[in-house]
Structures are given as C-alpha cells and as structure tokens.
Specification:
By secondary structure, the chain is an alpha+beta fold. It has two domains: 388 residues, no CATH class; 32 residues, no CATH class. Helix content is 31%, strand content 24%. The protein contains eleven helices and 24 strands. The strands form eight sheets. Strands 7-6-5-1-8 form a five-stranded mixed sheet, covered by helices on one side. A four-stranded mixed sheet has the order 9-14-15-17. A four-stranded mixed sheet has the order 19-20-21-23, covered by helices on one side. Strand 20 and strand 21 form a beta hairpin. The two termini are 43 Å apart.
C-alpha cells in the first residue's frame, strides 16, 4: 500500500508541477505580413464585370497574428481581397497546421473586402467540392497565407496583451434608403416590390430615411513587448470599402492605409520584426461612407480613402492609449459547420431569365442589370438546395470574436454584440468563404440589391439561425476553463 501511495503522491506532485509550469508559461505573440499582390493583367472584380489591373497603387497583403498563452494558440489572417473562398481558407489552414501545429479550427482566414483586388473567390456559385479545386492565384494566396502564419509563429516572443473600443461615427452611413412612393425603379426581375434602394441619388428630394442603423464602434486587440514596444494590432470596423481609386489600380483601400497610419502613430517604424496592424471587416453589408443627404463631391483619387483611414486610426490610437495590459489571458476557439438552405429561383423567374439570355446576340456577354441577373438566376438554379456554412468563434481574454462567410448586415453585428457573454464582442465578415449578402429577415422583406436572388444566396431565415449558432458557440467558450485577467 505504501508503494502505491508513493506512486500516487509522485504523480500528483508531477501533475502539480506541470500545471504550475503551464500556468506560468509566458504569454507570447508573433506577427508577420506577406505580399499577395497579383500580376498586372489579373482581373479586378470589384464591379459587376471584371477588368484587367493596369497599375499597382499599393501592394495587397495578408497580415497575420499568432497568440500563445502556453495552453492554447490562436491565429488570425486578414487578407487584402474582396473575398476568400472556402477552398482557399481550408488549404491555407491545412498547410499552416502542418507547419506550425496550430489547429485549423483555431485559425481565422478572412478578407477585408477591398474592391481593387484580384479574385481569390473562384466561381461565384461553386459548391464546396468545386471550391476545393484552386486556380493558380488561389493556390498562391493559400500558400502565402500559410507561409505568413508560419512566419508569425516563428516571431513568437514574450508579450502582454490588451483591448479597447473606440467610436468613429462620421464615416458610417446606412446605404439602404426608403424612397418616396413611385420613385423606385423596376428591379432586374421585372418587379416593383422593392421598398428600399441601395445607394440612392445623393441629395435627392425623393429620400425619406435610412432603412437601418449603423455601428460606429472600433474594436481592437493589441500586443506589445514586456517593455512596452508595440508588436501588432487587430482592429475591426463596420465599414464597406471606400473606393475612389484611379482607373484600374490595385489597392488595399482604407484597410491598408489604416495599417500604415497605425504604425506611424505608435512610433513603430523600423522595427525587427516589423509591427503589423490589420483592419478586419465588421458587419458592413448595408454600410458605406456616403452621406446621401448631401450632394456628391469631386475628390482626387484616394483622397476620401486617406481621410477615412486617418480618422479611424486616430480614434483607434486614442483608445490604444487607454489599454490595460495583461500578462496572460485565456485563449480558445471553436469551428463548426451548420447546414442551411440556399435560395433558388421560382419557375417564373427561371423562365424569364432564360428568355432574356436567349435574346442575346451570339457571343455577347450580359451587360445590363437584367441580363446580369438573368445569368445569375440560371447559375443559382444549378446549385445544391442545401449546403454547409462555416462558423467560428474566439475568446481572447474578455473579448469575443464571431465570424461569418458573408457580407453581414449591421443589425446582425449589433445583436451579437448585445447578446454575447463577452464584452466587447466583434464580428469578422467574409471569413472562410463567401455566401453573398446576409440581411436580416426584416430587411429581406424590404427588397433592394442586397436581398436580390444572386446577390443574397442563403435562405431568408438564415440570419437568426446563424446568430443563435454563434451565441451557442460563444457560450461554450465562456464556460471553458481559464484565468480571467
């Protein structure tokens, strides 16, 4: 008995020592960025029809951050792309897991939604199986994401971490507007049942009121060395791209300018490893930076973009200065898929679409709105009725992060922030795939561009189902063990 008791005692002491060592393992962080600028001539896909890039105004990057508390590692990769396909995300996370040991479930891959980038999306209405086949640029992007995550892991060094929130309301406007009766145009399905219009004429006497709210909050997570030197920053803001580029330029839009401005504001130039700031896209599906109550203004290329980046960076910098730094925090993540229905045309819509396409001259590509949506209607009809949708959540100390593979409406983000057990919580859109716009059920009933078949792909009831699933995931994170800071 004494021998057995000695063995048990030794095991308990060993376990206690291991637990103690693990508890006191230094918190570490590492960051890196990798160039994903495509060759000139690649198609820019920000509009209804692609056109070849002719100039690089500023490079496109994947910016990565890895966090390690001695018990878990999580990683974030934010790409200067309109969107990133599920296939690219899967391949990048697979390669990164092989190289770093970070579980694929703990790696976020998202896009900023710059409209001045080449496509890593592949075919617009591809199934998950079809998305697994990557074209040449997608293969390059997946490899660069994985390599940059590996470099961020190589840069892991003792750090401390903190978070803060700020507000910048001057650059967020709901772009969906109620208009006076009789002033809305016929939509591309031949109907006059839309109640709101996206991007209405600026300063028009026909404007009534915006169709929804905005979210001016800037959320940020920052890491610095134990001595106080900035290492990296992950921010989130619910604003669509700004645009205003020159011609067929490639550009990271305000997301890239924000990153550069934060580096200068924090005095983090000429560091080795380099300081990395990244701006993720929040819930901006119905939000842009245009004040529709005022007449349009003529600005030089990139002028508006610089103004937005400067103001958002200044607000983030002021919040950064209030951060309470933590020596270690709990880290965790969950990744799951839920099955949802995907929208399909009615028999009447399909017949109308086929008739429109049949009227095109041989070899002529669709150019009008009716023709473009006729083409999309036929393509949507050939997709599965149901498919899996990836959802992911993170815990970083008291911060919750939820992700969705769509252009998410602002109301959805506000609901998740209000109901989440974590304060603050923010939502990263365009993560692990692209399923089009995600309006609320109420916004679907109002119609408009973001709700049209071929623009919004998920079932009309998708938003509440996705919100509930993400809240369940966040709740499981909140119940998981770990030290509160």
């Amino acid at each position: 008995m004494g021998h057995v008791r000695d063995i048990v005692t030794a095991l308990m002491v060993g376990l206690a020592m291991a637990t103690s060592a693990n508890t006191h393992a230094p918190f570490r962080a590492g960051a890196a960025q990798g160039n994903i600028t495509p060759p000139l001539g690649e198609a820019i896909i920000g509009g209804f029809r692609p056109f070849p890039a002719t100039h690089v105004h500023d490079d496109l990057w994947v910016r990565c951050l890895v966090l390690d508390n001695g018990e878990a590692r999580v990683a974030f990769a934010v790409c200067d792309l309109l969107g990133v396909s599920r296939g690219v995300s899967d391949e990048a996370r697979r390669l990164a897991q092989e190289a770093t040991g970070i579980p694929a479930s703990h790696i976020l891959v998202s896009a900023t939604h710059t409209h001045s980038a080449a496509s890593a999306l592949g075919t617009r209405f591809a199934t998950q199986a079809e998305q697994a086949v990557l074209d040449a640029y997608q293969q390059t992007v997946a490899r660069r994401i994985a390599d940059t995550l590996r470099c961020a892991a190589n840069n892991l060094a003792p750090a401390r971490i903190g978070w803060a929130t700020a507000s910048e309301p001057r650059h967020v406007f709901n772009r969906r507007w109620f208009m006076k009766p009789g002033t809305l145009p016929v939509n591309p399905f031949g109907n006059t049942n839309d109640v709101v219009k996206m991007n209405p004429p600026r300063g028009s006497a026909d404007l009534v009121k915006p169709a929804g709210p905005t979210d001016p909050e800037i959320c940020l997570i920052a890491v610095e060395t134990p001595e106080g030197r900035p290492l990296a920053l992950l921010a989130n803001y619910s604003l669509h791209y700004v645009g205003g580029v020159r011609g067929a330029d490639l550009s990271a839009d305000y997301y890239g300018l924000f990153s550069e401005r934060m580096r200068r504001l924090l005095g983090a130039d000429d560091q080795d490893p380099s300081f990395v700031a990244m701006m993720s896209n929040g819930t901006s599906g119905n939000i842009n930076n245009i004040d529709f109550t005022r007449p349009g203004e003529k600005l030089p290329p990139y002028a508006k973009m610089r103004t937005v980046a400067e103001d958002v960076a200044q607000a983030a910098h002021a919040a950064y200065r209030t951060i309470r730094w933590h020596e270690t925090v709990p880290l965790d993540a969950r990744f799951e898929e839920i099955e949802l229905g995907f929208r399909h045309p009615t028999a009447e819509q399909l017949a109308r679409a086929k008739g429109i396409l049949a009227g095109l001259a041989p070899g002529k590509k669709p150019t009008t709105l009716d023709e473009i949506y006729a083409e999309r209607t036929v393509q949507v009809n050939e997709t599965p009725a149901r498919d899996r949708v990836p959802l992911q959540v993170f815990r970083v100390g008291d911060v919750g992060i939820a992700t969705l593979p769509a252009e998410v409406f602002c109301e959805i983000g506000l609901e998740l922030k209000a109901r989440s057990p974590f304060k603050p919580t923010f939502v990263v859109s365009l993560a692990h795939g692209y399923t089009g716009y995600l309006p609320t059920v109420e916004q679907h009933a109002l119609g408009g561009y973001e709700t049209w078949l071929g623009t919004s792909r998920l079932e009309v009831e998708a938003a509440p189902k996705l919100v509930d699933a993400l809240l369940r995931q966040l709740g499981r994170l909140d119940a998981s063990p770990g030290l509160r800071p």
